[in-house]
């Protein structure tokens, strides 16, 4: 009976864990689905902003426009800041290990090209990783634990990073994140966030009729450029969050499947142990009854 009690205890522990795993899987699925919708909206809005900037570009001074965070050609890298995006918590499979191992490789390649490379982090796992490597990030931002990053949070990060770029502390800002690929965890990639390459603007032929712009073109250009920078960073961070929650969903789904299999195995073991215990009790009863009958048989022979 001791084995039966041990099996029952294990089953009770698993039954108490199963609702937690199911809840985490449900939350991850909801965040994953919401993130994909938000990512699609970000991409469409970014494309619309680039269209607006391209329409207004001929109406403003080119040199002034370039000063709003655009460059015509790739500049030599001198002082570069790299924002590494990871998760605030674990339970997402190999997501953090894949992102941070890949980030180390990308940073090593960038250090060959640039004079100085410094790191900023979004997510506690990225901060812990670099501190274990004796690298102190210049900025360490906190990501939400259970929900997607909000536009307000990304706007604060964007303002802070743009301030460092405008002060001349850095020449460029790169973002390392995990791109979203359906059905698998893709290795991280590094993309330039600032300054924005003017080559990204869609080409414009002479339009007829020309676009009607009723406001000051300079004000419209400046606000559109600023909004594009914020939305572009929001898009990259949201895509990384989609990869994170997809990895967490797959991890929790695998854990839920393993728990179900384990419950089935333990239930079978429990029934087998009970049958064995009942059989042993029956054998003991049979043996006991035989011993009781033996003395009476001996008396009859006497």
Describe it.
The chain has 302 residues and is of the alpha/beta class. It has one domain: ATP synthase, F1 complex, gamma subunit (Pyruvate Kinase, Chain: A, domain 1). 63% of the residues lie in helices and 12% in strands. It has six helices and nine strands; from the N terminus they run ααββαβαβαβββββα. The chain has helices spanning 2-56, 62-66, 95-113, 124-132, 151-166, 217-301; strands spanning 70-71, 79-85, 116-122, 139-141, 172-177, 180-181, 184-185, 189-194, 196-197. Strands 4-3-2-5-8 form a five-stranded mixed sheet, with helices on both faces. α4 (124-132) links the parallel β3 and β4. α1 (2-56) packs antiparallel against α6 and α5 (151-166) packs across α6 (217-301). It starts with a helix and ends with a helix.
Total DSSP helices:
6
CATH superfamily: ATP synthase, F1 complex, gamma subunit
Which assembly state applies to the chains in this document?
single chain
What would the principal axes of the Cα set say about the shape? elongated
CATH architecture: 3-Layer(aba) Sandwich
* Mean pLDDT value: 87
Q: Write down the CATH class.
A: Alpha Beta
> Please, how many domains?
1
Instruction: Kindly report the CATH topology.
Output: Pyruvate Kinase, Chain: A, domain 1
**Beta-strand proportion:** 5-15%
What is the distance, rounded to the nearest whole angstrom, between the alpha carbons of the first and last residues? 42 Å
* Tally of strands: 9
Poorly predicted residue ranges: none
Side by side, the strands of the main sheet go 4-3-2-5-8
Question: What order do the SSEs take from the amino end to the carboxyl end, as H and E?
Answer: HHEEHEHEHEEEEEH
Radius of gyration: 32 Å
Structural class determined from secondary elements: alpha/beta
- Largest pleated sheet: 5 strands, mixed
């Amino acid at each position: 009976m001791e084995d039966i009690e041990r099996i029952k205890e294990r089953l009770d522990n698993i039954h108490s864990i199963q609702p937690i795993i199911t809840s985490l899987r449900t939350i991850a699925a909801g965040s994953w689905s919401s993130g994909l919708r938000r990512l699609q909206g970000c991409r469409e809005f970014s494309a619309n902003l680039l269209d607006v900037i391209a329409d207004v570009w001929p109406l403003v001074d080119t040199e002034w426009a370039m000063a709003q965070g655009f460059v015509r050609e790739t500049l030599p890298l001198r002082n570069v800041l790299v924002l590494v995006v990871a998760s605030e918590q674990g339970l997402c499979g190999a997501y953090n290990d894949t992102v941070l191992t890949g980030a180390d490789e990308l940073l090593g390649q960038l250090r060959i090209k640039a004079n100085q490379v410094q790191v900023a982090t979004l997510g506690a796992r990225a901060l812990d990783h670099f501190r274990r490597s004796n690298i102190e990030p210049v900025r360490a931002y906190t990501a939400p634990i259970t929900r997607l990053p909000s536009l307000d949070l990304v706007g604060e990060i964007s303002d802070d990073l743009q301030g460092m770029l405008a002060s001349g502390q850095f020449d460029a800002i790169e973002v390392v994140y995990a791109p979203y690929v359906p059905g698998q965890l893709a290795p991280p990639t590094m993309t330039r966030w600032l300054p924005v390459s003017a080559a990204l603007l869609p080409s414009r032929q002479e339009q007829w009729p020309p676009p009607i712009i009723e406001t000051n073109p300079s004000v419209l250009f400046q606000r559109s450029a600023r909004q594009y920078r914020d939305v572009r960073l929001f898009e990259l961070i949201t895509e990384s969050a989609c990869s994170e929650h997809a990895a967490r969903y797959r991890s929790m789904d695998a854990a839920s499947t393993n728990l179900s299999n384990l419950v089935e195995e333990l239930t079978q073991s429990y029934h087998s142990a009970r049958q064995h215990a009942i059989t042993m009790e029956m054998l003991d009863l049979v043996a006991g009854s035989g011993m009781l009958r033996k003395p009476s048989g001996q008396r009859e022979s006497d």
